[in-house]
Design a protein that fits this description.
The protein is mainly α. The chain contains 2 helices and no strands.
């Protein structure tokens, strides 16, 4: 029985890591939008990507 609880904990950790990974990726994309060495149009594209990612994150993960 103790082994089953450990397996469930590992599955929950993996789920949590996936969410953190998704948010971390989005943060890296958004960080590119603040880089002034990148052309304005590309920076705007990074903002759009970040916005779409957050929309999808909240629609899929937060709203049940």
């Amino acid at each position: 029985m103790h082994k089953t609880n450990k397996i469930l904990t590992n599955q929950n950790d993996r789920y949590f890591d996936r969410e953190i990974s998704w948010l971390s990726f989005n943060q890296r994309v958004l960080r590119q939008a603040y880089d002034e060495t990148i052309q304005f149009v590309e920076r705007l594209r990074f903002i759009c990507i970040s916005s779409e990612n957050l929309d999808e994150f909240y629609m899929v993960r937060i709203a049940y």
